[in-house]
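U., I forgot to send this yesterday:
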Amino acid sequence: MIPNSVSALKARRRANIPKLPPELWEIIFDHGTYVPSILIPEIYEYSGTLGSLFNHDHHPLIRQASVTKRRLIRVCKQWWHLATPFLYRSIFIGRGRCLSSLANALAFSARGKGMLLGKWPLGFYTQRLDIAMRDTGQTLADLGLLAEVIRCLPNLAIVSVDATPSPHDSLAMPGIVMDALIYIAPSLKIIDWASDRLLPSFTGLQNLLTATQQLHILSCPYYLKSRTNAMAINCTLSSCTTLAVPLNRNDIFSSTQLPALRELSYPYSFPALDWAYIPFLERHGRKLCSVHLYWSGFRDQLLPFARHCPHLCRLTISLDFWDSFDVESFKLIPVEYLGVRCQRSQSSTRAYTFVFSQLAHLKDAMPTLGTIRFTGSSNVNELLRNHRKALVHAQELFGGSKLRLEDHEGRLLLDRVVPLDATS
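Result:
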């Protein structure tokens, strides 16, 4: 008798899955698809550095985790049932063409069809939405579908817009999408416009902010177009602790009440003689505990912060080149924490040796300083992979010091240096 070849093939392909309690499988799925620092509350630690640099580090991890989640739900019915909420916890929109199927799935589930037994609609689980479309151009039809997706996410806490720039004129975020964001605004805790594409209008942003109830972080550091001469957002953001300030002639937050503000971010370079941000510091500087700056390379850049921010204890800077690091400038502000990041990749051993030597001067010159952190994962990986000599130099400079030299995740950087005899 010839065995049924199809049945035999199915038997060979049948997954041999251990019988574990569903709760244990959920813990396994959570660990297996975990992306650090992208959800609340972990993301608050990176509040002042959200934007394109943060996304550059985390978007590849989010996409990789999404692939893993899609594979998990295809293994068997039990895994489909258990892993589907993880699939929708963080939605990453990388292409406009995926919006149609996503909008249909969410709307179908919201109507009570195709739902998981004993579960909420799929959109109920979504905490983060990344609008990072890389298409050559977004159409109004695509953005209409995006609005449908957003309306199905009643518990959305984080929205990040980081669409790839187009060689054509920037396309503004249409009113239908802003209306959808306003619809779910009470749940929003973080709004991050990380690129200057798909920007909201001034009126659209003001209406969105007015509708929020628990917003903690607002990042939209761009010039916004307005049909009127009114360019000041007049509302109270009672829970907003972190703000990325737009650097232009119009201080759009001059009329905004920010009683909880503690952290400020200037993510882009500004000229040495442009003191447009000083009026904002005069109003809010005494409340600030943390500032994030794009380092322009001139010493006077920190003077207004030293003058108007007496309670500043954390300072994070981004540089184009390590060689532009000027340790004398940072002695103006006696902070407890200093974060540094270089946007340029493939820096030389000489450049890293230089910056370690500069940082070593702060040990005695700034007695309040307790932590220096390299906040860029690319810088840390580059150091560990290619620049052992610079790290050995750092060990000589900081060995025995109480000053913590940390990697981007807060671990002791020098503890990760592989000894010479281990690599031989």
